[in-house]
Design goal:
46% of the residues lie in helices and 11% in strands. The chain is of the alpha+beta class and 235 residues long. The protein has one domain. Strand 2 and strand 3 form a beta hairpin.
């Protein structure tokens, strides 16, 4: 029997998932992606071999889940984009921590994951099953997830003065501020995605398919571009 599960949400928003960025989006050209890189973030890269390894980890988790009747909640066939999104977001949260002088401990990261473990238990799942099926997260990346959640928790604590907001307006204000922090961090990294995998959309903070290049063009003699165009935000 197949089991459907709730998509992991809780306090882990990666803030911008549900918020529109102020000022919308603008197009700007970015540098050419280094050979062998799936994406460039700041002065470092996410290698294609790393992405391939993590996609394999997710595929193995899917196979194990399937044997238990656990159905993926994210679109199948987009694993490369989904996993690359996670790898980029973890770099973004690391940048947020650096910009706000935040350092989290292993204990804080584990406490963050324990919250999700309790939610997973309610669905009769373990943590790896909960996040692989619900969020397309490779189990190997659970420690990075815990660290990112811990960073977000510290930021929320700084914003609300240690008291969780009790009103919708207060919660919206914190979400908006987190969205801004994430936007600034990502923009400072100048995220560039290998066109093979798509492009980074700052509005949803995810890797999305690149627009087709064979579509009809009203300009019969377009000027060729040697650099990929990435979506950039106004923060």
């Amino acid at each position: 029997m197949r089991r459907n599960i709730a998509v992991p949400r809780a306090s882990m928003k990666f803030a911008v998932a549900a918020a529109a960025l102020a000022g919308g989006l603008a197009l700007s050209a970015c540098g050419t992606v280094t050979m062998g890189a799936a994406a460039i973030t700041g002065s470092s890269r996410i290698s294609q071999s790393t992405l391939t390894s993590q996609v394999s980890d997710l595929s193995a988790a899917y196979a194990a889940n399937h044997s238990k009747g656990i159905k993926p909640q994210r679109p199948v066939g987009q694993e490369a984009q989904q996993v690359l999104t996670w790898l980029i977001l973890f770099r973004v949260y690391g940048q947020m921590a650096a910009q706000h002088n935040i350092s989290v401990t292993t204990e804080q990261s584990e406490q963050a994951l324990n919250t999700y473990a309790a939610q997973a238990k309610q669905s009769k799942l373990n943590l790896a099953e909960y996040w692989s099926a619900g969020g397309a997260l490779p189990p190997d990346l659970l420690p990075q997830l815990g660290q990112a959640v811990a960073i977000q928790n510290v930021l929320i604590g700084q914003l609300d003065g240690g008291k969780a907001p009790t009103t919708t307006a207060g919660q919206s204000a914190i979400t908006s501020q987190l969205t801004h922090y994430e936007c600034v961090a990502a923009k400072s990294l100048g995220v560039t995605v290998n066109p093979q995998y798509g492009e980074f959309d700052y509005k949803g903070f995810q890797v999305v398919p690149a627009p087709p290049t064979l579509a009809a063009n009203p300009n019969p003699n377009p000027t060729p571009s040697a650099t990929p165009v990435q979506l950039q935000p106004h923060c």
